[in-house]
Amino acid sequence: MTEVFCRRSGIAVVLLLVAAAAVAAQTTKPQVQVKIDSVLAADTNQGCDKQLSWLKHRLMRLFHFSTYHLVQHRESHTGFGQTATFELPGGRILHIEPMGMDGGMIRMEVMLFQGEEPMMTTDLKIMNHGIFMVGGPRYERGTLIISIETEAPPSAAEVGAPPAAVSAPAALPASDR
Amino acid sequence: MAHCNEIAPLLSAFNDGELSPVETNHVTVHLDNCETCRDKLLDFVLLGHHLRTAVAAPSLQGFSEAVMAGIAGSRRPLRERLLYWLEELRERWVAMVSLAGAAIATASLILALAEPQTLSRISAFVHGPANQVKLAQTAMVNPPPPPAASSNSETFISRLESRHPSVAMWSEPDYKTTVIWLGDDSLGND
Predict the structure, then answer these.
(1) ipTM of this complex prediction, to 2 decimal places
(2) Closest CA to A64 of A141, A172, A148, A145
(3) Are A63 and A41 contacting, i.e. CB atoms less than 8 angstroms apart?
(4) In this complex, do A81 and B127 lie within 8 Å of one another by their Cβ atoms?
(5) Nearest CA to CA, how far is B150 from chain A (Å)?
(6) Which stretches of chain A are DSSP H helices?
(7) Which of A103, A135, A167, B161 is the most exposed place for a label (fewest CB within 10 A)?
(8) pLDDT (tens digit, 9 = 90+) per residue, B109-123?
């Protein structure tokens, strides 16, 4: 009798494990696309790199450098709870970890390292397809500006509605997407 | 040739085939030449035959069924039955509790692994444990600035830690872009 009971319990455990594994697989399924543009900004009056045409107006508005040159473009897909690592110019390393969706925004942790030394770590929420930038580190004869753009799939973005405090993204000029 | 008084004690065993080959040969040689001993051996043979035919072997037909029926019919004492029941119950509970514990532990492990934070910690541990430790140390040395939130942009910053002496943050509402600017620091310089 105990043998039968053990066998039935074993089957129940296996079913439970399968269900838990399915939940785990479902939880980690959505992928977030992360795009990183490393821009060298300087005051050398060389204008803006053609490859940065989509970012030109934004850079001009946010900063007051006379030269913007795209040093590196990187893209990666990563799941929620997983860290995407980017090697940036000048031995910097960027860790981006999307942690989940919160009212249509992507919640993530961003860590910037100089080699193994941490330079900055931040937790933030950003609108899907939103961009934020980290700047300041010196690179060659200028300053490095790192543009970070994240994009979650619609299935992940539909998790929650945008919070009331946040308005819908305004339409941007064609040159700025 | 052996004397009859030496052979006589062996005749019964000889009749039953229990002697060694040497003894058997010895007795056989004696019997060939001794009628007295042959008569004694004949007596043993006849005696054995009479004994086997005199006592009838009991029939074993239905014996096992009768025994099993007797066992089934006998009622064990209450104490013994109670102890047996308790033992069975204990085994069942131990098995159930063990299996339930194992199931809960495994499910917890899987669900914990499925948690984004856990995965990120594992990932961070794999990719850069030194970074994590140093980051924690840095945070202790330089208390983080108060949480900031840029409500004019599409970005909300809830935590910002940096070892740079000056960190600035601003937003461009039109483009809904937030900038974190790390001030000059030997760490950030090439």
Answers:
(1) 0.71
(2) A145
(3) yes
(4) no
(5) 10
(6) 2-27, 56-62, 154-157
(7) A167
(8) 887 776 655 555 555
Backbone angles phi, psi at A45, to 5 degrees: 55, 40
pLDDT given for residue A39 in this prediction: 93
- State how far the Cα of A73 lies from the Cα of B42, in Å rounded to an integer: 118
Structure tokens at A55: 């970012």
Contact B107 A21 (CB under 8 A): no
Residue A82, SS3 per DSSP: coil
Tokens for B20? Answer: 């060694």
Q: Residue B186 CB: number of other CB atoms within 10 A?
A: 7
pLDDT tens string, chain A, 177 residues long: the values are 556 666 676 677 777 777 766 666 655 556 889 999 999 999 998 888 898 888 888 888 888 899 999 999 999 998 888 899 999 998 899 999 998 888 888 899 999 998 888 889 999 998 888 888 998 888 888 899 999 998 888 766 555 434 433 333 333 343 444
Q: Where are the beta strands (DSSP E) in chain B?
A: 155-162, 167-172, 177-182
Residue whose pair of structure tokens reads 């019919």 in the numeric block: B73
Low-confidence ranges of chain B (pLDDT < 70): 1, 114-153, 184-190
Are the CB atoms for A141 and A42 separated by under 8 Å? yes
Cα–Cα distance measured from residue B105 to residue B167, given in angstroms and rounded to the nearest whole number: 45
Residue in chain B closest to A125 (alpha carbons) equals B156
Residue B103 near residue A19, CB atoms below 8 Å: no
- C-beta separation of A42 from A142 below 8 A: yes
Q: Report d(CA A64, CA A143) in Å as an integer.
A: 12
Among A122, A117, A83, residue whose Cα is nearest residue B126: A83
